UniProtKB/TrEMBL annotation:
InterPro entries membership: CarboxyPept-like_regulatory, DUF5686
Signal sequence interval, chain numbering: 1-18
Alphabetical keyword list: Signal
Taxonomy of the source species: Bacteria, Pseudomonadati, Bacteroidota, Flavobacteriia, Flavobacteriales
Name of the molecule in the record: Carboxypeptidase-like regulatory domain-containing protein
Amino acid sequence: MKNHILFAFLLFSLFCSAQIKGTITDEKGNPLPFVSVYEENTYRGTTSNEQGNYQLQVKDIGKNKIVFQYLGFKTQKITVAADSKSIVLDVKMTEESFSLNEVVIDPKSNPANAIIKKAIAHKKENSEKTARFTADFYSKGILKVKDLPKKILGQKVDLGEDMASNLDSTGTGILYLSETLSQIAYEKPNKLKEKIIASKISGNSKGYSYNTASLSTYDFYENSIEFNINLISPIADNAFSYYKYQLEGSFFDDNKHQINKIKVTPKRDKEPVFEGYIYIVDDSYAIYALDLDIKGYRMKNEFTELMSITQSFSYNQKNKIWAKNVQTLSFNAGAFGVKFSGQFNYVYSNYEFPDSFAKKTFGNEIVAFDLNANKKDDAFWNEIRPIPLTIEESIDYTKKDSLLTIRKSKKYTDSIDAKNNKFKIWDILRGYDYKNTFDKYSFKYDGLLNITSLSFNTVQGFNLDSGFSFKKWNEENGKSSSISTTFNYGFSDERFRVTGEFSHRFNTINYATISASGGTKTEQFNSAEPITKFVNSISSLFFKDNYMKLYNLEFAQINYAQDVANGVNLNAKIAYEQRKPLFNTTDYSFFKRDDIYSSNNPLAPNDFSTPAFEQHHLMKASLAARINFGNKYISRPDGRYNFKDDKYPTVFLAFEKAFAGTEKKYEFERIGAAVQYDLSLGNKGILGMNLRAGKFFNAENISFIDYRHFNGNQTHIGTSGRYLNVFNLMPYYTNSTNDRYFELHSEYNDTGFIMNKLPLLNLLKSTMNIGFHALALPDRNPYTEFTVGLDNLGFGKFKLFRIDYVHSYQSGIEQNGVVFGLKILNVLD
């Protein structure tokens, strides 16, 4: 009912308003893009598109004064009489004459510094004026690609049939075009409620746009603004530590406000800073506008070459408030000769500034979509969109929308699938994919020579995977089902192992999912798999190091998971497990062939005949909870999408019970808890923490498999971006326990705060990591590690490496080592 009332209200507003439209040019007739256009003393406004075209809805029919405001040009105020529903008003703007005559320049001081100091002093006052508001919001986003090849590094670039067909023969065209119309309520610093009224994606009638107000709030009255990392505002409290300022001139707007144009220049090139211009209103020292650039390396995003943000503010003489009415965010990025560009335009209008909000205005739901948000027709959009489409955008909508019906038809999808589903004789070896797009199911065969699965260990020797998988899904209700089987063969132990799994997700609201799996496989004693197959293969074949310790697991298990409340996910599992010890079956390596591998017994690496445990079986049941405090979410008709609130930690709780064992001694109970938290230190970096604790009960004689094992590392190779779940020099099984335990991992990343200030080292554009790790057990001395290193290392745009010096200490034994971080291994394994 509420949706019908809202839609009726929008229609009523349209019929009771007039539309003013036209083209804005300079004196030479060149179109002016992104000119701020608004009705005087109101917050009803819009902006021109790249071709200078604009359209403005005027609520009250009569004489209206329309303001045209553009940086570098004189503000114009034109009175129009709305004698029809549509008025054409073309505007020619003249360049602004900047003057320094009104400014008394003291040779001993910089006049720009004095203005910025006053802007900082008045920052809290000006920010408070827009601390609470409601507004209408419109966004348009477009992403383009240029020179996209068919292959990159030998790998085929697969954009999907729909997207690829939108590019021309040179690999150039529009990848994404969308619009959003919403109503927002906002209260500083971060309370937001957004209702999406209309959402449109070119060529996707069922899609929902992602360019929302919740993702576009950039407040330069704050000390820092988040763009991948926290960048320093030109009027931050500590801005003079980062910027130099130059007053380039001043002018008067139509309300006789003196506007100061100040050039902003970084003091140090590698700092997280902006550069460009900020315009400050004299007397109030509010922001009038800004036009700033961000270089990609300054926000630790090497693939982005340049990002630009502009904001314009309009003034209302009735309430004396400068409020942001137009914002533009654009970027250029690229790699391998491929160029990407994007532009997002935002329009805020119809502001209201309440003294307070009702208590239940804000909640965990930050964005909600109207049920029919993506079903508005062209007539609706043509009438209500604030920024006219460019010719390129209109063509894109027309082309993609006209092809949509064809591309979604069974005849078309079947023809495309038939082309892609052709079976070739060599697919028996390399694998085969089959997809039915219309009926939404797919089948995959991995092939007899699935080279990407090839690995080596001393138990199986070289081993290879193959398998089959089937998946069926429903985009409307979020249901999906999959069934798969994996075949593994070890060439040295000549053993064939098979596992299978079935999984069904019931919806994308609470993500209720049930799964069942079973079979036979090799399993690491530490189920967290601290050493990857790839790293272990390299360690064994090249250095004759045998770190991966395996046993044979025959199992059957059922798992059920569901979000039971906002931010709370429960996972229940019951399993039958039969464990058998395994022994080395090969001594092969590429080098050091005279050396001998350690045994497969993690407790006795030099004992090749005694098994690590006796063969046995048991049942295990567990219940685990993940709690994201302050969890936020977006509600869409097709599902609910959760977002962790970084202000709060994530808590994990677990209970595990083993029963029905071969012998009573194998049965036990264990409770565990963990807290993970990232503490933001503003522009000074981020402190990550991971604390874990647990306790076993009735576990004096349990199998070593069920001990609590800790993630060590003896390879000196790091495979993750952050080391918050690993001890960098600790052997894999020397501290395993069946008693109580406490482990702490912490890591401070300066995000460049320190490194940017060090001569020569700042040329690396890297970040510094300082870490501390500790493990406390009841029957031995604590284990501790201190680390210091550099992250974000690499060549050109590819920052895939880090290096750390590590010092460890336990029971009087000190170790020193270097860990080389190869984050690309996350992809390879």
